[in-house]
Structure formats: structure tokens, C-alpha cells
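ENTRY TYPE: paired fold submission
RECORD: A
CONTENT: sequence, then C-alpha cells
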Amino acid sequence: LPAALELLARETNDAGSTRVELHVAGEAVALPEEIKTALFRVTQEALANVAKHARAHVVQVALSFDADGVSLDIRDDGCGFELERVQLDPNRGIGLRNMRERLESIGGSFEVRSAPGAGTALHAKVPPEAIRRLGAG
């Protein structure tokens, strides 16, 4: 997963005006394919949303491995948005809903924080029990 995210960050940096900074913390553990795919797709969708909507200069992507599982934090310095309004509009926020469903389907959680003028922060978390459960299957 770290290598795939590194490649995604490099490709994004080469393609546009937004700079992606990737940070990996902790000792990377072997993850079940479903978890790697979910976290990669969430990052992909988040970077697509930033390119499409955020007008951000910098996106920080942090992948962390620790005793609490694996977490992915993505923050941008873009224009932000009114989260409640986007969540109430059935024609908007489809990517955010997809990210949430993707994480919940593997036993993880997903949070979004945003406000106009304040950028956006996404937090995805997969606890150790979900990693063990999917690893056993």
C-alpha cells in the first residue's frame, strides 16, 4: 500500500498544480487485499475531489500503522465546503458516500471535516480486528 500511494502521489504531482505530500508512519504490516484496495480507492477519490472542487495548493496524505490498526488521513488547504449541505443534497457528495460505504464494508470508519475557506480533512480507520477478520478469509 505505501508504494502504491507513493506512485499515486507522484502521478498527481506530475499532472497538476496541487502538490501531494505522502507521509507513512509506523511499521507497515501486511494487509488483506480488501483493505489495501479500499484505502487506495479512498485516496484516489479524495485526490480526484481535490482536483475537481478544492482549488488546493497542498494535500497531505498520512498513512499510519500502529497498535490501533491502520489509518489514513487526507487534508487539503482548499476552499472547503458546507458538509451538511452536501450530505443533504442527493446529487452531491456521491464520492464521499462511496468512501464511507467502502470503509464500512470492511469494518472500518470514515469521517469528514470541512468548512468554507478552511479546507477538508478525511479520516479513515481500520481497526486490528477488521484486519484479522479479513486476513483470515
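RECORD: B
CONTENT: sequence, then C-alpha cells
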Amino acid sequence: MTFRKKPVVIEATQWFKMGDHPAVIKMPDWVVGFDNEKGWVETLEGGHIVTPGDWIITGVQGEHYPCKPDIFEATYEKAE
């Protein structure tokens, strides 16, 4: 069986540095490979590292999650 994703309009912000999106916070000190260039976002599945250029998507329930630029470009197009 095959399925098509329902068309839904999302809100997204491309993240490059702290302050670009309120859901992205300083990476916790306990994260291996701590890097001041990266951020951290809590998702429904747990925390995720955010790197410059990632998109922060607001989901249908108001949750946030990161998306790599190449996946974002292949999956989404600008809504008018």
C-alpha cells in the first residue's frame, strides 16, 4: 500500500544562532560533543541537537522539532 501525506501548512523558521527561535535553547552541558555553535530543542520524542541552517518546525499540536535543510527543501514548499 502507498500513502500520500495530507497537505498541511506549517510554520517554520531557519535557525542559525541563539535567539533565532524561542524553542531553541543552549545545548545542555551533559551532551557529548558540546558545541557553542549548536542549540537544543525539546521535542515530543526527547531533545535534539540543532545545527546552524536547520529549520525549526512547529507541528500541528504546537510542538517543535528540527529538520535538516535538504529534507526540508525536499518535503516543503512556500505557501502563498
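NOTES ON RECORD B: The chain is about 10% helix and 30% strand. The beta strands are 11-14, 25-26, 39-43, 46-50, 55-58, 64-67.
STATUS: closed
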